Amino acid sequence: MGEVQRILITGGQVVTGQTLLRADVLIEGEHIAGILSPGAVREVDRVISAAGCFVLPGVVDAHTHIKLDTGIYQTADDWETGSRAAAFGGVTTVIDFANQIPGRPYAEALAARQTEATGAVIDYALHMVVLRPEVELDALQASLGELMALGIPSIKLFTTYRPNYYLDDAAILRVLRAMPDGMIAMVHCENDSMVTAATQALVEQGKTDWRHHGEARPAEAEAEAVNRVLYLASLVGARVYIVHNSTADATSLVNRMRSQAEGKQRGRFFCETCPQYVLLHDSVYAGEHPERYILQPPLRSAHHMEQLAAYVRAGMVDVLSTDSCDYTLAQKRATRDFTRTPGGLPGVETLLPLMFTQFVDHVGLPRLMAMLAENPARLFGLYPRKGTILPGSDADVVIYDPAPQSVIRHQDLHYLAGYTPFEGMPVRGRVRMVLSRGEVIVDEGAFKGKAGRGQFLPGGRSLDPC
To answer: How does strand 6-10 pair with strand 46-49?
Structure first.
């Protein structure tokens, strides 16, 4: 083994935990060795100047779909291209998904997904999608315990997408009851019956053009399912994380349940939202390219968008993630029927600059980075290895220059999609350098990493956000 390289990042303002301070960051090998007074260390192998910049923990995108295969559609990316795009955006950890293989041990699904991810250029963790939970409670408890032992403290459940992903209330309650201590359930909440009825009515009327997509998945369907899942979780004291809140109602319900549960230890309730839901609204479906905005849940009204952004500013949202899916324009345009158009938007590369632009003046940089890094690391068992700049943590560091002014352009990004839903949006600042476990993988827009250097991250117990 070679000597451990010592790197000093100097001259910047460092976000460490909930603090912003002017300090130097000492890296030894793959880890943070110290947060030091400026000028305290001189004998190092490399000095990196962060003058005029912020020194941030690498972003942890807790909700990505790299090389997604739904059984109907497959995204165009693979783990090398998908994680490379993430790195350019200052994302140093993604948490993706493995789908349970019905009737087989969870370990097989985990191993299969890890094999697919061998080209990753950044580190990754996995959630497990539970598709066919055992009926016998003892057997289900045992299998979820085995999953936890494999380093997967988070599972994904769906209240929609019948028959492939859908679980009825009895199955969801059974899973929530069987979860071991320290496990958390992510839930995609839409009332399947309401979505099915709305979609069928549009089909019968011949209204299947892309512009009708939002009508097929009404906001009320999300709110009803969120309310129901929160109640089920409260019955058994489960930890539940509501994914991709697209409505103000969903976030309000989570926070209302959270306030009612304080001190009672009857469940823990958390939520995320995504850039598309606080920056875009449903007027795009009447625009020139509605196919670019097909996703589930769909974009909502300007009221929901504005109120949801206000809830982020008010501290009512725990995590900002992307739900990124790299479908190409050709895939999106294969048919003008929204019922046969793959749903999902590319977004992992633009998460940090867009959310910095939108929220930093309102919530401050430490709070913003809590939503982008520390909270997802805590909730999904990766803290303090990931999500923070503290001695002993992995040296995942982003040097972010807040001065440049630019606009989002798809030709500057590294997706395969051929477009970005945020085309033309102004952004403040840019990612100047990215280090992953002490290795510079992006430097002034040039990629310095290599395929296969990313590692699987086994997660520990789910912790409450900061």
So the answer is: parallel
State phi, psi for 255 to the nearest 5 degrees.
-70, -35
Structure confidence at residue 163 as a pLDDT band (50, 70, 90): confident
Exposure string (b/e) for 231-245, b if CB count within 10 Å is 16 or more? Answer: ebbbeebbbbbbbbb
DSSP string, 191-209: -HHHHHHHHHHHHHTT--B
Superfamily of domain 6-56+391-413+424-447: Urease, subunit C, domain 1 (2.30.40.10)
| pLDDT of amino acid 265 | 53
Residue 209 contacts residue 215 (beta carbons within 8 Å): no
d(CA 436, CA 83): 12
Beta-carbon count within 10 A of 20 CB: 17
pLDDT in tens, 400-421: 999 999 999 999 999 999 999 9
10 Å CB burial of residue 28 (0-12, 13-18, 19+) is middle
> Does 3.20.20.140 match the CATH number of domain 58-379?
yes
- Phi/psi of residue 270, each to 5°? -140, 165
